[in-house]
Design brief:
The protein has 693 residues and is an alpha+beta fold. The strands form 5 sheets. A 6-stranded antiparallel sheet has the order 3-2-1-6-5-4. The termini are far apart.
């Protein structure tokens, strides 16, 4: 029998090892075919979404460009361009800054026949205007898409030019009777700078190539072949680290013009491979651990022998059913004779392991202490009761409540121990102590002053029962002095009349924040903001007040008020008329001098449109100071004739500057009007009103 045991153990280990190896191989093949395939599908879908995101951004750019073109086409100054006399003046108003801010390379004004009224091209590299590209003229046919639009929606899209791909928008210029009098065309090259701008805005790696380019890179040629059919997006892994998605953009004629590519890291694929490798590694570790555990259990199962245990049926039933752990110990050897199921569950042992244990294996008191307790029980017949720490089979420590005495077992005297797990109770006690210590540290180390005080029968502040160090430092009292006082003793006597209302609101709401003035021990007054909560502590109604020193805030508020008063006084007493207008031409504010110049009252001006109050010749034109500042000018100044409410006209020197908010965004303009009617030759000056620079 003993000779056959090693052979049986070896056969069992071989079988278990073979099963584990087959399992690992099967899982590896399955993960390669299923798991990695799922990661690859997610990867392709992810990069497909990114190329669609790039397409949407390009459409948004075209839509925004169309809105700008529509706004320009609707302006009266644009329709005036149909008059030859205004062509030169309007052409000069197209500043380089306008092209740069709108990122435009081309602006054309066309007649319905397709002839160019006025046009300007702009080179962003040279930062200067240049001649209109010749290739654009082939797209200016009256029957072409750019000139077939008859309403404000116009036409947007891309066209292929010899110089590159251009995003274009076309908007009709209509008369008052909705007749198309001409067209406004704006263009922007889809060049490297624009692609870089798109990449920054979308946080994507974007690239484009012409669809008809004969020198396309190999991956673009593959994508062009795949996208020639019904496929809208083509995904192609470029390397083990990079994957790309391709999409075709059609021109305004519906023909393929551009291949758009978005690159992305193969994060999903890399993560998938890493996951599979870690999974197999853990599976191998678990398999080895399982093999070792199996070998150990097999040895214990085959080599150990069970011993019969004596016990009466009633004793066995009581011991096995009790929730407390009970074990018997041989007095001389300190070896365990028997233990019930509660003991086994508590310390993680099985019944077969109990006879191999001695008291020193799990009792953490030390040999000398254990021997002293055992001798005391034997010699003095004492009943031992107390708290100890025992060690479980897995090495973890458990706190127990233990009692021990001598009993008769099998015709001899043995030690009977009863243990109860009090780990949860210990943890609760420790957590409570830690919570109290944490609260005490937070309470005394807080930068704000904190007091806890009782409430009187009249629901007014009563005696202080706790105070933190910050309160003592702020007021200059010791903790013992404050505990003998009430909050009323440190509040400003002149403001005590406010407290009944404050505490009435506190009791109705449970919480309130208010301002008060504290008086230090030396008599210095400190403005504070107090946040107070009311609650019950051990059945007694108390209030917790947290006060913050707001001296600096009060000083800042006073400084702001003084600054506002100074600005209001300067605005109101200025010798020139002043007016603030927002971007929607609404009058926000005027001074008394402006009302006197316009012959109106303050109420007649505020809230109305600026061109309805004190109107002039430049209203509703591009020379309007608000329009010029919206186009990028920082200062506008010229002489202009203005009409008062009574019909009389006066000549003013108008100076306008941007009015910006705290965040730097343009809110409107500030206009300054200086009456120069009395100067010699004012009529001549009015006729020679300064042109925009």
């Amino acid at each position: 029998m003993q000779g056959r045991v090693p052979g049986m153990r070896q056969k069992a280990l071989i079988i278990i090892g073979a099963v584990i190896i087959c399992l690992i191989a099967t899982l590896y093949i399955t993960s390669q075919r299923i798991v990695l395939r799922g990661f690859a599908v997610n990867e392709r879908e992810h990069v497909r979404v990114k190329v669609e995101q790039a397409q949407f951004h390009l459409l948004d750019d075209l839509s925004a460009l169309g809105m700008v073109a529509g706004d320009w086409a609707a302006r009266e100054r644009s329709r005036d361009l149909l008059d030859k006399e205004n062509e030169k003046d309007f052409h000069s108003s197209l500043q380089t800054k306008s092209f740069q801010e709108l990122r435009l390379n081309l602006i054309l004004y066309l007649r319905p026949s397709g002839s160019v009224i006025s046009g300007t091209a702009f080179d962003f590299i040279q930062k200067k205007k240049e001649t209109i590209p010749q290739g654009i003229k082939t797209h200016l046919s009256p029957q072409g898409p750019l000139m077939r639009c008859k309403d404000e929606s116009g036409m947007t899209g891309i066209i292929s030019l010899p110089d590159g791909i251009m995003m274009v928008v076309s908007r009709p210029m209509m008369s008052e009777d909705r007749t198309v009098e001409g067209y406004l065309v704006m263009g922007r090259y889809l060049d490297a700078a624009e692609i870089e701008h798109m990449s920054k805005m979308t946080h994507l790696s974007v690239a484009v190539q012409r669809f008809d380019d004969q020198r396309l890179p190999p991956d673009y040629r593959t994508a062009r072949s795949a996208l020639s059919g019904k496929t809208t997006v083509f995904v192609n892994p470029l390397s083990k680290d990079t994957i790309a998605a391709y999409a075709v953009l059609n021109d305004i004629y519906g023909k393929p013009a551009v291949i758009l590519r978005v690159d992305d890291r193969r994060t999903f694929f890399i993560q998938g491979k890493t996951t599979v490798y870690y999974f197999l590694l853990w599976l191998l570790i678990i398999g080895l651990g399982f093999s070792g555990t199996t070998r150990f259990l097999w040895r214990k199962l085959v080599l150990s022998q069970r011993e019969k245990q004596e016990s009466e049926e009633r004793y066995r039933a009581v011991v096995e059913q009790t929730a407390e752990g009970i074990f018997l110990v041989e007095a001389d050897t300190r070896r365990l004779l028997e233990a019930n199921a509660a003991f086994q569950n508590l310390f993680g042992y099985i019944a077969d392991e109990i006879p191999g244990l001695i008291l020193y294996d799990f009792c953490m008191c030390g040999r000398e202490d254990i021997d002293f307790v055992v001798r005391s029980i034997i010699t003095e017949r004492r009943h031992i009761f107390g708290e100890r720490q025992f060690k479980r089979k897995d090495g973890s420590v458990v706190n127990v409540e233990i009692s021990a005495n001598m009993i008769s077992y099998g015709g001899k005297e043995v030690l009977c121990f009863t243990v109860r797990d009090i780990t949860k109770r210990k943890r609760a006690d420790e957590a409570l102590k830690a919570s109290e210590e944490k609260f005490r540290n937070l309470f005394h180390n807080a930068s704000d002053a904190i007091i806890l005080h009782l409430l009187t029968e009249e629901d007014m502040p009563g005696r202080i029962i706790e105070v933190n160090d910050a309160m003592c430092r702020r007021l200059g009292y010791s903790r013992e002095e404050l505990l003998a006082m009430t909050p009323l003793d440190v509040d400003d006597k002149e403001r005590l009349g406010e407290l009944p209302r404050v505490y009435k609101d506190l009791l109705s709401q449970g919480h309130i924040t208010f301002e008060m003035t504290h008086v230090t021990k030396k008599g210095r007054k400190i403005p504070v903001e107090i946040s107070t909560h009311v609650f019950k502590l051990n059945g007694v109604k108390v209030a917790l007040s947290i006060s913050r020193d707001i001296t600096e805030r009060k000083r800042a508020e006073e400084a702001i008020k003084l600054a506002c008063l100074e600005l209001n006084q300067i605005f109101s007493t200025a010798a020139d008329g002043m007016r603030v207008v927002d971007k929607e031409f609404n009058v926000l504010r005027v001074n008394e001098r402006f009302c006197a110049m316009a012959g109106i009252s303050m109420s007649e001006s505020l809230g109305n449109k600026c061109y309805e109050v004190f109107r002039g010749a430049v209203c509703h034109s591009l020379d309007c100071p608000l329009n010029r500042i919206l186009l990028g000018e920082e200062r506008v100044e010229y002489d202009v004739e203005k009409e008062r409410k009574d019909g009389n006209k006066i000549l003013c020197t108008l100076t306008a500057t941007p009015f910006r908010g705290p965040d730097g965004e343009l809110v409107g303009i500030v206009e300054n009007f200086r009456d120069i009617t009395g100067r010699n030759g004012w009529k001549k000056s009015c006729r020679r009103r300064r042109k925009p620079q």
